[in-house]
Design brief:
alpha/beta, Rossmann fold, Nucleotidyltransferase, domain 5, Taq DNA Polymerase, Chain T, domain 4, 4 domains, six-stranded mixed sheet, 37 helices, DNA-binding, DNA-directed DNA polymerase, RNaseH_sf
DNA sequence: ACGCTCACG
DNA sequence: GACGTACGTGAGCGTA
């Protein structure tokens, strides 16, 4: 197998293996295997080694290579991103359990004694191109082991390709079959046709067929572009004239670079026999039993013992050490920290948790960091523990034996930013923000809370204590044991380090174990894509939004609050007057007694507590009968709500440093995929009433800026039209007509023109009712009509739109069968209550009907948000808020139109390319100095 | 700690 | 035939 080392030339045969393609193929072809002894993901490495072994075993004929190399991609950013920033922009993020396997695939290649090549800033394709050119120029033959169509331009004159799966050779004929042109014109065709996978734009509306036709007619791309006027088809002609520049850019993107610098010689790629001991040692270390045995037999060597826990007798979880079995280490000096960092680099992953002085990530200070790499072992690095109670007399001082926070952060920064090291957290957005305030953008990340959410939404919540108990059978140390509760509660900084260490280290270890538990389950339950595309990428996006905050004018709120206080006092006087006695207007109990016992109005008892209901609809009914007191109460309640929840509470949320309000979004809070906003909730700022809407005037743009709001129009109804496949509804949305008027017209047989607003209102209520899993009772209450009438409406509706009934029935049946429903994008929402009987069954049924619709809308805006930072990167604009179907931006005043164009585009195509909706998504936009104006 | 009420989509 | 329901949230307040 060894050739003389005279140099690479005639008679030599170079094999170039597309390593990255091998890895992805291996990853997707195999179930998510983990290494028995420690649970790290190893499936892609296993597949990679199998493929490599098969390759090596096959090379023994007369056409065996004299030289061989495996080429890998080094990083995602290459010179092509300089030419076109969007290049490969819509690639999904790497699966988190794949990235840590990358270093191992390099090791594997070396273990096979094959040259392993990667170059910073270049794609594997470019290195393959350069090597092919060089080898061909030297008179040798080249075989590229890959089926990547982007490499087909290299075929010809001694270079061919080999599809490693089909074992099929790809020569000039096969290339011509695929592209309609010879290999030398492949780039021209690709430049025209573009590539949605790599996000090469190409010419809109032109695919490979048309591109080949044009190139064959005009000879080459430049001739085509310079003589575009001669194209007969007017539309095609115009497209090529309009997009000439874009097409030229596309060509530069697809054209592989034969001049890629190489810091090694062809000679160095000479085929070497595998060294049995090195290869077998690696395979045994990976615990690949079958392959180790097979290789040992073939090489005539003795197979080393594969040491790991023997296969479990049942399918139970692998044997793991007990919690903390190998100790929780307190790290107090640089030497110890460096030891951990070295271990992390070796492992390729680390579970991490931060302890801070408070729960508000915008203000909390770092107190300590805990790390865990494997089950049974973790450490805690205290940095901010203090002694004394911090008051004037017991002045606080730093506890001795801690590293400085700055030194720890400086040491951890390379780890936290290392693309080859996965950082695993539980609710990692919290820790991400803490580090971001110290100039560290942590990446890549995994989040056990989000893994659980992707799997278990609808079944249970996803807090660490809950997950630890359910999946690890472990009860976490309650935080209360450290900081107490109520009045005597202390901050984490005041906790003694000896007590903090086991608590904090345990959190990191639990996180690590949860990650190991969930990683294989995500695949098995088919929610990996949801986790990778809809959950994990939200973390940095939301963290940035939350840290940006929105400017709130405290003075305006204060003025409003005073006005509200006056109005409340005035209303209270009137109310007491009408009631004939003084009482607490804010007490439903006292109010109920006044209304129903004392005044004897009609309205029954409700609820288990036996209290009268005094809710708005009860009071509205009474007011409609002409009673003044309930009407005044309603007024008072509105003002009271505005004052307490909005003007007063909001002021307390203005961050003193930034002068802005920083909400926190929970990614895993709602069952359906929606976000939830807390502290404060900025997703329920008043808008429906004139008075309430004025609160939004206090949400202002910073000077020189504007607030811009973009919202999806009728997104849930559009999704309903698509998923239930309702022709009339789809057509109406395509035609852009008033959907509620159309519904009314279909139901009641009246023309849209000059329609009675009442009729339209009823149709609108029915449309919404459908989304919620309509019932006659619910509709009758909403519309305040007799139940029989409401039921008749619903019957008519189902007659006119029979597909809706079919959709609802099918959704419920699916839920009963599977125990969950899925959105268009694969998000899984579990429906544990669906097979119950009794009153609860109705609720579960309606929730199951609603979830795929509400959830798909949530998925779509998530997709838009994830793409948004890149789309507005060059604009002076920031995304600040999300309100389910609305995104709010802050933009420099000169750039509002540009922002709207860019953001609208992202939002309108957000479902693609995964889902091509049968209806358009329409986005409305508004601009203003404040949120009231912009909405 | 829990229920009621009400703000939003 | 009766049961009680519109779907999804979070916050403030009163009450126990």
């Amino acid at each position: 197998m060894t050739s003389d080392s005279q140099g690479f030339g005639k008679g030599c045969h170079l094999h170039l293996i597309d390593g990255s393609a091998f890895i992805f193929r291996a990853y997707h072809a195999l179930p998510p295997l983990t290494r028995k002894s420690d649970g790290i993901p190893i499936g892609a490495v296993a597949g990679f080694c199998n493929m490599l072994w098969k390759y090596v075993s096959d090379q023994n004929g007369s056409d065996a290579p004299t030289h061989v190399a495996v080429i890998f991609d080094h990083s995602s950013k290459t010179f092509r991103n300089e030419i076109y920033p969007e290049y490969k922009a819509n690639r999904p993020e790497l699966p988190e359990d794949l990235r840590p396997q990358f270093p191992l695939t390099r090791e594997a290649t070396r273990a096979f004694n094959i040259a392993c090549i990667e170059t910073e800033g270049f794609e594997a394709d470019d290195i393959i191109a350069a090597l092919s050119c060089k080898a061909r120029d030297a008179g040798g033959a080249v075989t590229i082991i890959s089926s990547d169509k982007d490499l087909m331009q290299l075929v010809g004159q001694g270079v061919n390709m080999l599809d490693p799966i089909k074992g099929k050779e790809i020569g000039p004929d096969e290339v011509a079959e695929k592209f309609g042109v010879g290999p030398d014109r492949v780039v021209d065709v690709q430049a025209l046709a573009g590539d949605s996978v790599d996000n090469v734009p190409g010419a809109p509306g032109i695919g490979i067929k048309t591109a080949a036709l044009l190139i064959n007619e005009f000879g080459d791309l430049e001739s085509l572009l310079s003589r575009a006027e001669e194209i007969k088809q007017p539309k095609r002609r115009q497209t090529l004239i309009d997009h000439a520049e874009q097409i030229r850019i596309s060509k530069r993107l697809v054209q592989l670079d034969c001049d890629t610098p190489l810091d090694f010689t062809l000679e160095s790629l000479e085929v070497r026999d595998p060294q049995a001991d090195a290869l077998l040692e690696f395979l045994a270390q990976m615990e690949f039993r079958t392959l180790t045995a097979r290789v040992a037999e073939k090489l005539g060597a003795e197979a080393p013992a594969v040491v790991s826990a023997p296969p479990a007798e049942t399918a139970a979880a692998p044997e793991l050490p007990a919690m903390g079995a190998d100790g929780y280490e307190r790290v107090s000096d640089r030497e110890a920290l460096d030891r951990w960092i070295a271990e992390i680099a070796l492992a390729g992953h680390v579970a991490i948790d931060t302890e801070t002085t408070g729960l508000d990530e915008m203000q909390a200070e770092l107190v300590g960091v805990s790390l865990s790499i494997r089950a049974g072992r973790a450490c805690y690095i205290p940095v901010g523990h203090v002694e004394g109670d911090g008051d004037l007399f017991g002045a606080t001082g730093r506890v001795a034996g801690q590293m400085d926070a700055s030194e720890v952060l400086e040491a951890l920064k390379p780890v936290l930013e290392d693309p080859a090291i996965l950082k695993i957290g539980q609710n990692v957005k919290y820790d991400w923000k803490i580090f971001a305030r110290h100039g560290i953008r942590m990446t890549p990340i995994a989040d056990t809370m989000l893994m659980s959410y992707a799997l278990n939404a609808g079944t249970h919540n996803h807090g660490m204590d809950e997950l630890a108990e359910r999946y690890l059978g472990h009860k976490c140390i309650p935080i209360k044991e450290l900081i107490g509760s109520g009045k005597s509660q202390i901050g984490f900084a005041q906790v003694a380090i000896d007590k903090a260490t086991p608590y904090a280290a345990e959190d990191a270890e639990v996180t690590l174990r949860l990650w190991q538990h969930f990683a294989p389950v995500l695949h098995a339950e088919r929610v990996t894509t949801v986790y990778e595309t809809l959950e994990r990428p939200m973390v940095p996006v939301l963290a940035d939004m939350e840290m940006a905050g929105i400017r709130v004018d405290g003075e305006t709120l204060k003025r409003m609050s005073n006005a509200f206080a006056q109005k409340m006092a005035q209303l209270e006087d009137e109310i007491h007057e009408l009631a004939g006695e003084k009482f607490n207007v804010g007490s439903p109990k006292q109010l109920g007694e006044i209304l129903f016992d004392k005044m004897g109005l009609a309205g029954g008892k409700q609820g288990k507590t036996g209290a009268y209901s005094t809710s708005a609809d009860v009071l509205e009914d009474l007011a409609a009968e002409g009673h003044d007191l309930p009407a005044r109460i309603l007024d008072w309640r509105q003002v009271s709500k505005l004052k307490s929840t909005y003007t007063d509470a909001l002021q307390s949320h203005v961050n003193p440093e930034t002068g802005r309000v920083h909400t926190s979004y929970s990614i895993a809070g709602a069952q359906t995929g929606r976000l939830a906003s807390t502290d404060p909730n900025l997703q329920n700022i008043p808008v429906r009433s004139e008075e309430g809407r004025r609160i939004r005037e206090a949400f202002v743009a910073t000077p020189g800026h504007r607030l811009v709001s973009l919202d999806y129009s009728q997104i849930e109804l559009r999704i309903l039209a698509h998923v239930a496949d309702i022709p009339a509804l789809k057509q109406a949305f395509r035609d852009g007509i008033d959907i509620h008027a159309m519904t009314a017209s279909q139901m009641f047989g009246v023309p849209v023109e000059g329609m009675d607003p009442m009729i339209r209102r009823q149709a609108k209520a029915i449309n919404f009712g459908v989304i919620y899993g309509i019932s006659g009772y619910g509709l009758s209450r909403n519309l305040r009509i007799p139940r029989s009438e409401a039921q008749a409406f619903i019957n008519t509706y189902f007659e006119r739109f029979p597909e809706i009934r079919a959709y609802m029935d099918k959704t419920v049946a699916d839920a009963k069968e599977a125990g969950y429903v899925r959105t268009l994008f694969g998000r899984r929402i579990n429906t544990p209550g669906i097979n119950q009987s009794g009153p609860a069954a109705g609720g579960a049924r309606r929730a199951a009907i609603n979830a795929p619709i509400q959830g798909a809308a949530a998925d779509i805006i998530r997709r838009a948000m994830i793409r948004m930072p890149e789309a507005i990167r060059d604009l002076p604009a920031r995304m600040l808020l999300q309100v389910h179907d609305e995104l709010v931006f802050e933009v420099e005043e000169g750039a509002t139109e540009e922002l709207i164009a860019a953001a609208r585009q992202v939002m309108e195509v957000a479902a693609e390319p995964v889902v091509k909706l049968a209806v358009p998504l329409v986005v409305d936009a508004g601009i203003g100095m404040n949120w009231a104006e912009a909405h």
